Amino acid sequence: MARAGLTAERLAAAGAELADEAGFDGITVSELARRFGVKDASLYSHVKNLRELRQRVTLYAAGEFIDSIAAAVAGRAGQEALVAFADAYRAYALAHPGRYAATQHQVDPELLAGTTVLARTVDTTYGMLRAYGLTEPDLTDAVRLLRSTFHGYIALEAEGGFGHPREVQRSWDRGVQALHVLLEHWPRSEEGEKDDD
């Protein structure tokens, strides 16, 4: 690729491709410089260091991830929205393992402040749960349960961790159905929203 037009955004997109090929930890300044046909120093005009480069990949991947989920959930509510959310989550994670791994990393507040990724993620996730009538702190607890359940299942699936002959898709579908039942009968917290003591 030519040096002209090199931007932080293009570096993030190329870094996301590299993540799927070599893993998130495989993102290096040297490899990206090679792909753009420039010297390493040229990239430092657009990112401060490897940490920032990887964080930009995280933001890029997180934006793609939540946009794919939002598109799947649009116009749906309740169990239908939960299924669409879960299936889009899993599809992205399995199709883009390096990008998905990137979404699990934290981003410095000053870099995050310049994007809408966090707001879109909160709006989509909490919007999907709206039909279940949850309020804080139950809402946050439910989001954490869903995220950890999806992540754990996908990690095991990707590593071939399910040895039983039962079809993995059927277990996934039943698991999401069970989460729907749980969300409909969520044990309400007695804490309510409290200020810190």
From TrEMBL:
Transmembrane segments: none
Signal peptide: none
InterPro entries assigned to the protein according to its UniProt record, in alphabetical order: Homeodomain-like_sf, HTH_TetR, MT1864/Rv1816-like_C, Tet_transcr_reg_TetR-rel_C_sf
DNA-binding region: 28-47
Domain (HTH tetR-type): residue spans on this chain: 5-65
Transcription found in the keyword field: yes
Keywords: DNA-binding, Transcription, Transcription regulation
Coiled-coil region: none
Protein name: Transcriptional regulator
